[in-house]
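2.7 Reproducibility. Because tokenized structures are sensitive to small changes in the input, we list the exact sequence used for GPW/gp25 family protein, including any N-terminal residues retained from the expression construct. No trimming or masking was applied before prediction.
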Amino acid sequence: MPYLRFPFGPDERGRSRGADDATHVRDMIEQVLFTVPGERVNRPDFGCGLLQLVFAPNSDTLAAAVQMSVQGALQQWLGERIAVEAVNVSSRDAVLQVEVQYVLRQGQQRRLARFTRDLP
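Resulting structure tokens (single pass, no recycling of outputs):
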């Protein structure tokens, strides 16, 4: 396994957890979604600012803006690895849920990744 898992941590043997290619891509999607632009020192434009938009008043316009922001960030940062087919973002009872349907460019495998975060 040539990649490290995100978040970094030990496996059952006490070594760094590894990831195959498909798991690594899923981990990268999670990093793009939940990294606030400006958070990374050498990549200040990395991320999509999803967590910042959660507290805005809920509306169809906001939902469309969030979807476009997420899709644009995934295309910018992972466009060589995946083709994003759909993004669904919802917030209920202080929990943010994001579903991303995508196709791995290598092997043309369709995937669905679900991510949840408790909101502060």
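The first helix runs from residue 21 to 34.
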